[in-house]
């Protein structure tokens, strides 16, 4: 299975993704944890470039193309080989993030992003996506003590558009995207995730 976790900054998605990975490993399953942008040496270099603040203006299309380049490395050199080998892959963000951040957040036409995503992923889509949803103010409050990257420093209004983008994706694909209230306790969220995974596995 290919399982992805999405959410705005500070949603707790990374914590839940790592908990699921450890649970699968402890259960004797073959599983790998990865992230976007990143996941391979080349993609991690692109991540560093994207998230680093710089004096030169960062064109929106340049940002979009860099995300797609990183995703292509990730899919071709990490995700697809693992899935073909029968390994469950858990990714902290994937293609939905680009629609939410660059589409809804930046205002790039979603149709353009979906077209580029189809090329970068070669049509690969997650079996399940967990959207850990929280109010923007809560998410930003959670991350304020850490050193923020270029995207995290965007205005509140940007993050609100991103959140709305995620909720629109979930509304459009309810069979794939499971929305969970990120204000629940970590243990409560993870129980929902485990139950969903077990139900999905039984249906396969």
From TrEMBL:
Similarity comment text for this entry: Belongs to the thymidylate kinase family.
Annotated binding of ATP, by residue: 7-14
Catalyzed reactions: dTMP + ATP = dTDP + ADP
Organism: Desulfurobacterium atlanticum
Thymidylate kinase-like domain span: 5-191
PANTHER family: THYMIDYLATE KINASE (PTHR10344), UMP-CMP KINASE 2, MITOCHONDRIAL (PTHR10344:SF4)
GO biological process: dTDP biosynthetic process; dTTP biosynthetic process; dUDP biosynthetic process
Pfam families noted in UniProt: Thymidylate_kin
Swiss-Prot/TrEMBL keywords: ATP-binding, Kinase, Nucleotide biosynthesis, Nucleotide-binding, Transferase
Alphabetical list of InterPro entries matching this protein: P-loop_NTPase, Thymidylate_kin-like_dom, Thymidylate_kinase
GO CC annotation terms, alphabetical: cytosol
Gene Ontology MF annotations: ATP binding; dTMP kinase activity
Protein name per the record: Thymidylate kinase
The keyword Repressor belongs to this UniProt entry's keyword annotation: no
């Amino acid at each position: 299975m290919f399982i992805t976790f999405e959410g705005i900054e500070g949603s707790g998605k990374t914590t839940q993704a790592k908990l699921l990975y450890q649970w699968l490993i402890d259960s004797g399953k073959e599983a790998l944890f990865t992230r976007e942008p990143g996941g391979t040496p080349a993609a991690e270099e692109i991540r560093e470039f994207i998230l680093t603040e710089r004096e030169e203006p960062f064109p929106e299309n340049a940002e979009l193309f860099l995300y797609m380049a990183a995703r292509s490395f990730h899919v071709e050199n990490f995700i697809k080989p693992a899935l073909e080998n029968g390994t469950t892959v858990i990714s902290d963000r994937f293609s939905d993030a680009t629609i939410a951040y660059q589409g809804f957040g930046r205002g790039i036409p979603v149709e353009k992003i979906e077209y580029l995503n189809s090329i970068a992923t070669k049509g690969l889509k997650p079996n399940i996506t967990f959207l850990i949803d929280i109010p923007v103010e809560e998410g930003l409050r959670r991350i304020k003590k850490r050193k923020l990257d270029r995207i995290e420093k965007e205005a509140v209004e940007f993050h609100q558009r991103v959140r709305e983008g995620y909720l629109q994706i979930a509304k459009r694909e309810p069979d794939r995207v499971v929305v969970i209230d990120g204000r629940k306790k970590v243990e409560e969220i993870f129980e929902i995730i485990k139950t969903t995974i077990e139900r999905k596995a039984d249906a396969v």
